[in-house]
Fold these 2 entries.
Entry 1:
Amino acid sequence: MDEIVLKWVTVLSGILTVIVCVSVFFFPDIHERAVLAAEQQKEVGGGNLIATTANPKAVVEQSKDLNAQLKIALPEGISKADVEIENDYVTQTIYIKFAGGVDDYFEQYAIKGSSDHIASMAYYKDKEEGVIALQLDQVYELKNRFKKGSLYIDFIDPHDIYDKVIVVDAGHGSHAAGAVKLGISEKSLNLAIVQQLKKLFDEDKRRIRVYYTRTSDTNPTLDQRVQLANKANADLFISVHNNSDATGNFTKVKGTQVMYSESDDAKLSSKKLAEICLKNVVDTTGSENRGLLKGDSIYIIRTSKVPVALIEVGFMTNYKELDLLNSTSYQKKAAEGIYNAINEAFQEGY
Ligand SMILES: [Zn+2]
């Protein structure tokens, strides 16, 4: 009896060993590519589009003699102070919210002007607010004015008012943490670096407009991230990530890598931008230069229509580098490197 039990224990532990070995070999591939691939599987095509509830052409009374693209009649008693206008660049959606919304705005009030650049529009009530949502065909800045019970809006191409337009992406966010090592999430490191970069641009007095895919713990879809760059026709698209060893285990592997689009054969290419990013981040952080990586397997790189570089600042699977990445001083150095890279790219003509 004992012998049979012993035999089974041996057989079972043998099988268990094989399973463990196989899973260690195949599963903990928490390397960046694997993480991003999993995310893109879930998210591609999952844009947060607002349902078209009205045909813009049918709703907007075409009128050419207006001194604005749109004239939106506001319900009686609604003045400038009762209206809130939000421009969500990530989804290219304008929300015009007014207190005490009416039931069916479109049937009772007029929108005049031109429906050009409006991909879809909707009106809905959100609690006690009426909301007109306009989804635009690209990123626009707005010029608004109020006059005699109406709101006048113009859509302005950012390139008409800024010298340079950049999109900066902090990788992952919210439930998508990226790699997690010793309780430190990649999403938080990426965001911390981007927030330091934002400080540098906030103090920059040049006419540079930076659009961020996120400035807090949110998780725009991969498609929204890349579309922000495409629809702003950005001069540069920079995505900030941190790396993990392919095994997922702590190792001696450390340093900075930058991914680029190998299919981009423009003179001011993704690869050249990646080189500039790599050099500058290594310069300010003192990290090891681990070179460039082809990145067309990554959705946001492959589908970017503008020069893109995905910077893997450091390895979270290296104890020393994880400590550095988690420190404000190193995050600042990384941000300075990216800032310097952007300036060098502009000098190169991007
Ligand atoms: Zn990442």
Note: Residues 20-30, 43-51 have pLDDT under 50 and may be disordered.
Entry 2:
Amino acid sequence: MPVVNPMDLSGRHVLVTGASSGIGRATAVLLSRLGARVTLTGRDADRLQQTVEIMAGDGHRAAPFDLGAIDEIPAWLRDCAQVGGPLSGLAHCAGVQVSKPIRNADAAFMSDMFRINIASGLALARAFRQRGSAVEGAGIVFVASASAFVGQAGNVVYCATKGAVVSAARALAVELARDRIRVNCVCPALVDTEMADRFRSTMSEAQFEEYLQHYPMGIGRPEDVANAIAFLIADTARWMTGTSLLLDGGLLAG
Ligand SMILES: NC(=O)c1ccc[n+]([C@@H]2O[C@H](COP(=O)([O-])OP(=O)(O)OC[C@H]3O[C@@H](n4cnc5c(N)ncnc54)[C@H](OP(=O)(O)O)[C@@H]3O)[C@@H](O)[C@H]2O)c1
């Protein structure tokens, strides 16, 4: 019997948001190595092209788009599915993290954070279930955060947005099962990306060293998250929906 690789994505079309940087870039690269044809998005066209250049195979397409334009998402995603074919997966990696104590969190700040971190994902799910956008059994993966489960002073609004992502994935899993669409999320703790660099710059060296003590296995690499996302999109997770996969180097176990 030939060995069948359940993570083989040959011939499948996957949309990756946040593909110009960090976790999204690592995800686009891994999915391409698994055989997928990837549509990549983010706002920065040059950085999206840099990702395309390190991907395997061909047929990939950079489609720059600002996910803050919530009401434009369904038409934009329909175009992506028309150009590249119905989607087998969506890895929604785009997100923003800005540290701010609650005393300084005004309505505009809250609205911006919720718009990118949760409303964009809901609109993408709405778009994904449109007729012709996705194939049967397709998988959506949202990148939430371990911040959904652990409180952090100065990071309240971000934590709230990521808690909302976990809840949204669970409810969408139930609602979209009738469309044969699976919805899961991954919840990484600190991963070595530009976002982590910005987070780190809000602390002194001593504070950061103290923070690292909470990570028995150290902080993560973007590829650690990409592996889990690929697993949830591929046939390996054919029977998984509504799950939140914690990726935290042991942070919450301690
Ligand atoms: N790094 C961590 O420690 C960590 C931990 C837990 C969860 N996460 C989550 O993982 C995801 C990826 O984070 P990362 O560390 O890879 O961050 P990153 O390196 O800062 O990348 C963020 C990505 O989001 C995109 N993005 C931001 N605003 C956008 C908008 N309005 N429209 C379209 N794209 C937008 C950016 O693209 P453009 O700049 O090109 O628009 C970029 O590709 C985020 O959801 C984050 O909350 C990260």
Note: The mean pLDDT is 97.
